[in-house]
Predict the 3D structure of the following.
Amino acid sequence: MQPRAVRLVQLSRVRYAELLALQERWLRRLQPEPGTEALSGTEAGALLLCEPAGPVYTAGLRGGLTPEEAARLRALGAEVRATGRGGLATFHGPGQLLCHPVLDLRRLGLRLRTHVAALEACAVRLCELRGLSGARARPPPYTGVRCGRHITSHGLALNCSTDLTWFEHIVPCGLVGTGVTSLSEELQRHVTVDEVIPLFLEAFKETYKCSLISEDSPN
């Protein structure tokens, strides 16, 4: 059987708001209203990749930031945004690879938990390809997922050369007593987002058993 295709949309450095807007457009495309464009029968969605252009703290559906905390974070020079994902507050910024697959799980033959495990496996596989054999995914319930009508936009953020001091101002994802690291920190050299993208794509195709169709410009 021919593998399902996933559109690859690489955005380079963009504001976090642009990523969210593109994500919403792909969600609508996977859940089309009458008379709007739908995906072809062989496509399962899109993989959106970018590096945040500036520092931003995000809070999921469970909140995690009071108005006073949000004001304190903005005073540091960061954006603060509410998002539709699960989970608590976290940080995104330059030096970080953001991966947002917007997928119809039915077309890929995946259950939600299997999808989450597969996305985590991509990050672990990437670490292995960079020589970090000790990387492991956390077990449930340490994940926050957004899914509706079998369409998921659950993503991940991989710290490549991120300034980790930004995480010191929050409890990342509500995980008390858990540290944050990066590929640069673990490998003791500067690792760029551009360096790891090919490895992540290799891991994604391997894990999801899909093909990737490059797209020059966002739809």
Observations:
- The longest helix spans residues 112-129.
